[in-house]
Structures are given as structure tokens and as C-alpha cells.
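nitric oxide dioxygenase
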Amino acid sequence: MDAPTTTSADNGTSGGGGGWFTPRKKPTTTPDSEPGTPEARRPAAIRPVGRPTDAPETPADGTAVPPASTTGSASTGGPEQRHEPPEAIPTPAQYASSPAAAGVAAASSAGPAPATLTPAPFASTAPSATGPDEPRVPAQRPAPVSAPGQAASAPAGEASPDAILIRRAMAEVAPVAEKVTSYFYALLFVRYPDLRPLFPAAMDTQRDRLLKALLTAAEHIDNTDVLVDYLQNLGRGHRKYGTRAEHYPAVGECLIGALSKYAAEVWNEEMEAAWVRAYTTISQVMIDAAARDELRAPAWWYAEVVTHDLRTPDVAVITVRPDQPYPFLAGQYTSVETPWWPRIWRHYSFASAPRSDGLLSFHVKAVPAGWVSNALVHRARPGDIIRLGPPAGAMTVDHTTESGLLCVGGGTGIAPIKALVEDVAEHGDRRSVEVFYGARTDHDLYDIDTMLRLQQSHPWLAVRAIIDQQANQQLPDAIRAYGPWDEFDAYLSGPPGMIRSGVDALRDVGIPSDRIRHDSVEELVAAGS
């Protein structure tokens, strides 16, 4: 499933001045010039973030905090740049003076640091630093993903003072959001031109991704459970862009500069202080998550295309071999960058459960103006090299329960559904699995033969094809016609419209929201990943 565009760093492996694998030269200095507009002030309270490189500090809970990565490190993929050594900062609990920020900081610091893993070069036979008794398995998110458009539930009690101030500013800038976005990037690129290579040459597809992610996080500063998980995933995912700890203060400075300009009617020192506290907490959670992840996994994986199966004129099933073990869970997705469109990433779900041979498969549909999807469908061939980001997503099977699985897949959304079925089969479960495979025409049922073969092999599996142009009912209506579903967990994958209508249909038939799992396009946009 082709998801919104994101970007990677120009780190010598993706475009820029040379070839795809050509390192770039160091930029020289970071100018301190102000943009021509005087209204944007530089908030002095945002301090450089990151852990000191010489002596990592240990939080009170005993968690080992890794040092910030060095410039030009292969594990972060960051471009070589000259920076002053980052100033040592207090732990999140010390600088998070508001109750909401302190809660977020405390929740983010739990858990031991994983074992070290050094990324190996492509086609290298160097063994992983992780021993055989310590498999690198991505953590499964315990909470299901909320429905699109559903606001995160607020904690008991009233909103914190900082949250009230933050939301007041957001309400003020909402009518001029596009201007805020443009001004934010203008400040960022004028004040910090060395950050420009982290973004694609054409900003039309990127414009609001970063700002939307920051504003989403700030808006939910009181909702610790949701926010920490969101920010940790965001921090891990941003490693592949070359994002480093020293980049965060610049982004925070320009964010507050843009907000102070367009929320001038309500902006004051108290509001600015609330935003500084919120952003400091947000950035530290992301930095800490990235630092922990750096010890256990590379920032990205190289992968060689081994098979390219064109199922229809615009749908291909692509199988790749990563350069080193790639741990993931059935139902998750990853981000993909091609050599033809460097610094542009799109998300695709894994089309199978983890395989013993380590190969990964994706179903890709070429969409109009889809740079990455068209390249993968019409240009990629065996032997080509692509890059993969880390696995992500919460649409995974809970094997501790015996609930049935109601799986709804539309178009190439059948890919993760197939992976879930294989996962249930490999665990030896005999729980009921009901699959609804939706398509506009029978031509779009490109993987129906595979699903029917799985049905023949597993008596607990039922597969139903719902074709819009032939059926008297749409996919949500078909879900309502069967059932009951009160003892099922629901999984949805497909276009955003199908997910929205599917969630409504599932709620109508009595499945609670906390048992409906999906990774929608809107959430990927909000995450900016």
C-alpha cells in the first residue's frame, strides 16, 4: 500500500551531489543570519539536546543511556557536518516542569537498553553483534491503533495549564496553517541551510509533514500513554533521515518562531514557555528512543530485488533480500526508498509472515504521480538495490488470546492480511479467521488464488471476495451481513476511505474500538514518517 512521501538524509547513500553511494563533502559553517522578517524571535530557552559523547549519564531508573552518535556515523546515516559538542542536559524529569511533560518523560525512560548491533555493509558476511540467544524482535505495541479522526482520549481531570496554552495557540493559527507551514520552513532553511539536504528537492509533497507531526504531539501533551508511544516510533523512524540530536533545537526554534508570528494576538511569555517545555520533552523522548534503537538496529537496510512479479499492468509483487537480518512482525509495514527518487520514502506492508530464508515481499500498486510506486512497478528489476527503514505498525496478532480474527483487506491491503493468516498458521492456532477481500473489479483480485489456496489448507480460514461492480452490497455492508463478530478482533488494511467506512461498520456490529486494529494513511501522515 503506497503511503505519503517522507524523506531521508543526503548521507552519501541517497542522491545529492554524487551517485547514490557517493559520500558528500562536509558543509562548512552554519550561518547565524536572520531571515528578512523581523517578527520571528529566537527563543533562548531551547537548549541543545543530546547525550554527551564522552560519559553517558545513567537515569535514576538504571536505564543505560547511549551517547549521541558521532557525525558521519554509519549507524545514523547522518551527513558529515561540523558541530559544537552538544551541551550536557538534565534528564527529562528535571527539565519537564509541567506535570504533563514530567509524565511523558517518566514514561519514556522505562526499559533496558538493547544489545549492540553494528550495521553491516551490503552483501557482507560479518556476523551481527547480537547473539543467537538475543533475537532482535521489534516490540509489539500493546494498544491498538485508534480509528481515523478519533481524537486521543484525554486523561481524567482537567487539561494542564501548558496544554491549555498550547491549544489556544493552535486554535489561533489553524485558519492560516498553510502560511505557518511556509514560514516555518523558510526560517529553518534560511537559519540552518545545512538541514536542507535532509528534505527532498521538491517540497510540495513534504511541506506539512514535519510541522504536522510536531503539532500533533504538542496537542496531546497530556495524554502520556498515547504520546510516548507515538514519539518513540517517530524518533526511531527519523534515524533513517539522518536526524541527529543536534538538529532538534533548530527545529524547535523555528517552530516557535512561526507560531509566535501567526499567533501574535494571543502570544506572550507564558505561552512561549509552555511551548518550550512541551517541545523540549517531545524532542528528548524522540532522541532517547533513537539512541536506544541505535544500539540494536541500523538506521536502514539495503535490500536487493530478487523477484519482480507483475500481476496486473499496475500491480507488482516484489521480493527482496535484505543485507542483514530484518526483524518484523506479521501485519507491520516499512518505508522504502529507491535509487531513482532519492530522499523520498513511501510505506508498504509486508506481504508475508517472517520467513526462514529472510526474504521480504511487498505488493505495490502504481498510482498516478506516484514516484516510488511507479518506479517499483515499472522500473525495478532483479538485482536493483533499494533501502528499507525500520518496521513499524500495530496491526499485529495477539497470540495470548483465543479470539477470532476478522480481517478486511482492500486492493493491495490484502498483503498484510495474508501475512496475518500465515502468522496464525505458523503459531498452530485453530482460531477462526474470516477474510473479506474487497476490490473494485475481479481484475483487482490479483492475489485471490493465493488466498484460496490458504483456505484449502486451513479449515479454520474462510475467504470471501467482495467485488464492488458485481455485488449488490459494498464491503461494509457485507461485513454487517455476516457475523456475529462479538468474539472477534478486527484488522483492516486498504485505502483510507475503506478503513473509515470499515471502522464504522465494525462499531455498528458491536466490535469495540480497542479491538479494531489498522495502520491508516492518515496516521502515517500525522507521524511524518
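thats it. The two ends are 15 Å apart (CA to CA). The mean pLDDT is 74. bye
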